[in-house]
Specification:
- By secondary structure, this protein is an alpha/beta fold.
- It folds into two domains: about 5-295, 4-Layer Sandwich (Purple Acid Phosphatase, chain A, domain 2); about 305-400, Sandwich (Immunoglobulin-like).
- Helix content is about 20%, strand content about 30%.
- The protein has helices at about 20-40, 60-75, 95-105, 135-150, 170-175, 180-185, 290-295, and strands spanning about 5-10, 50, 80-85, 115, 120-125, 155-165, 175, 190-195, 205-210, 215, 245-250, 255-260, 265-270, 275, 305-310, 315-320, 330-340, 345-350, 360-365, 375-380, 395-400.
- Strands 1, 2, 3, 11, 12, 13 and 14 form a seven-stranded mixed beta sheet that branches. Strands 4, 5, 6, 7, 8, 9 and 10 form a seven-stranded mixed beta sheet that branches.
Length: about 400
C-alpha cells in the first residue's frame, strides 16, 4: 500500500461577498472537513492550502479581510497557505494596482510565488487585470520552472493559475487562456491546477493529460458549464449547490492521487485520479484517446420507464436515470420527439445531475406543448466521451385528436 508523504488542498472561485454570504460558510466548512478527513488518516498532516483566484467577488479590502479571517480561524499551524489573484480581485475601484496593494497588505505574500513544501515545488502565478499573463508573469514562470526541474526530474511540479490552459480540462474552451502554454509545454512533470470556469470537478473531463497534467479546481459559489445546447443555457438546475475542492495526496514514490471532495455532503465523489509518473507522458492514463476508447457502455435498467404527457404547461417528460449516473458517468440526456413516420420534430439535451452527490432518481422537465397528433418520445443517455446508452426509453403520446 502506498504511503502518503504530502497532502494539500486546492480550490478556487470562493467569491466572498459580505460577512454572511453562503460562500464564506461553505469555505469554512470545507476547511473543517479537510482537517477532519486528514485526522483520520495514518498521515494526518495538511501541508498546504492553495486558493487559485477569484476568492473575492469585487476584490475590496473588506472582502479580502473576510477571506483572511476565515483562514486565520480554519487553518492549523503547519499548513502553508497560498492565494493567487484573478479577474474578480481586480473589480475593486482602485484597479489592479490597488488590488495588489491590498492583497500584499492582507495576506502578506507576493502575487507570484515559488515554494518548496515537503521537498516538492509549488509555483503559483497571478493573472493581470485583463485576465491574461503578460511578460513579467511569463518570465517568472520560465525562471522558476527551470529552477524546479533542476531539483529533480522524476518528481511532479505543482503549478497553479486561475484560468484553465485552453484545450485541456472541461471549461477550458470558453474560459481558457493560452498565454502560458508555450512555457509550460516543456515540462511534462507539471500538474497544473486552474479554475475560472466554475465547471464541476467531478466531471471526468476535469482531469486532462497531453503535454502535461491539467486539473480543474471548481467553485464554492455556483456551477457553470461549457456546453451551449441546453434549453436553460450554461447554468444547470441546482447551479447554486456548488462547494467543491480537490484533496491531493503525494506518495513516497512520487505518484499523486487527486480526489474531488464535495463539501455539500462532506465526502469524496469517487476514489480519485492516480497520476503514477507525472514526468512520463507515456504513462498518462487520462488522455482523450484512451478515455474515448475505454468509455463505459451506458444503459437504463430493466425497470426504467419514461412517462410523457401533455399538460396545461406543455410536454412533461419524467424518466428514470441511467444506472451509470450513480458513478457519475452520464453527462446528459437526449430527448427526441418524432411523428408516426419517425421524422424528428424536436430534440432537447438536458444535463444529468452528475455534479451533485444527492442525485434524484428521476428526471423531470417540461417542454413547449406539442401540436395535436400522435408522437413518440424517446430518451438516450450520453456520456462524456462520445458514448451513448445501448438502450433507450420510449413512450407513445397522443395529443388531442390523432
Amino acid at each position: 500500500m502506498k504511503k502518503t508523504a504530502l497532502r494539500f488542498m486546492v480550490c478556487s472561485d470562493l467569491h466572498y461577498g459580505g460577512p454572511d454570504c453562503r460562500e464564506k460558510q461553505r469555505f469554512e466548512e470545507g476547511l473543517r472537513q479537510l482537517y477532519a478527513y486528514a485526522d483520520g488518516q495514518e498521515y494526518s498532516r495538511v501541508d498546504a492550502v492553495y486558493i487559485v483566484g477569484d476568492f473575492a467577488t469585487d476584490g475590496t479590502l473588506e472582502q479580502m479581510k473576510l477571506v483572511k479571517e476565515s483562514l486565520d480561524r480554519g487553518i492549523r499551524p503547519g499548513t502553508a497557505v497560498n492565494l493567487s489573484m484573478a479577474s474578480h480581485e481586480y473589480h475593486e475601484p482602485h484597479g489592479e494596482e490597488g488590488a495588489r496593494r491590498f492583497f500584499a497588505e492582507v495576506f502578506g505574500q507576493p502575487a507570484d510565488t515559488h515554494r518548496v513544501i515537503g521537498g516538492y515545488h509549488f509555483i503559483s502565478v497571478s493573472v493581470t487585470e485583463d485576465n491574461h499573463f503578460r511578460a513579467p508573469q511569463i518570465a517568472f514562470a520560465e525562471r522558476e520552472l527551470e529552477a524546479a526541474r533542476e531539483g529533480g526530474a522524476e518528481k511532479p511540479i505543482f503549478f497553479f493559475q486561475h484560468p484553465h490552459l485552453t484545450g485541456t480540462v472541461y471549461g477550458s474552451i470558453f474560459w481558457g487562456e493560452r498565454d502560458l502554454i508555450p512555457t509550460l509545454i516543456h515540462y511534462p512533470q507539471i500538474i497544473d491546477f486552474s479554475g475560472h470556469s466554475h465547471a464541476p470537478i467531478n466531471d471526468p473531463r476535469s482531469i486532462h493529460q497531453d503535454y502535461l497534467t491539467s486539473v480543474g479546481t471548481g467553485t464554492f459559489s455556483y456551477f457553470e458549464m461549457d456546453e451551449f445546447d441546453k434549453p436553460y443555457g450554461t447554468f444547470p438546475p441546482d447551479a447554486g449547490c456548488a462547494a467543491q475542492m480537490q484533496i491531493v495526496e503525494v506518495y513516497e514514490d512520487n505518484s499523486v492521487l487527486i480526489r474531488p471532495w464535495d463539501v455539500i455532503t462532506g465526502q469524496f465523489f469517487h476514489d480519485g485520479w492516480l497520476v503514477e509518473r507525472a514526468w512520463d507522458p507515456s504513462s498518462f492514463a487520462y488522455t482523450r484517446e484512451k478515455r474515448e476508447r475505454e468509455a463505459p457502455v451506458l444503459h437504463f435498467g430493466p425497470e426504467a420507464q419514461l412517462h410523457a404527457e401533455q399538460t396545461g404547461e406543455g410536454l412533461e417528460a419524467v424518466f428514470d436515470q441511467a444506472l451509470e449516473l450513480e458513478k457519475g458517468e452520464v453527462n446528459d440526456y437526449l430527448i427526441t420527439v418524432t411523428d408516426p413516420e419517425r421524422r424528428i420534430s424536436r430534440r432537447y439535451a438536458l444535463w444529468a445531475p452528475y455534479y451533485l452527490m444527492n442525485r434524484p432518481e428521476k428526471m423531470r422537465y417540461t417542454f413547449p406543448p406539442l401540436a395535436p397528433g400522435t408522437w413518440m418520445v424517446s430518451v438516450t443517455a450520453r456520456g462524456f466521451f462520445g458514448n451513448r446508452s445501448e438502450n433507450t426509453l420510449e413512450a407513445r403520446l397522443v395529443v388531442g385528436e390523432s
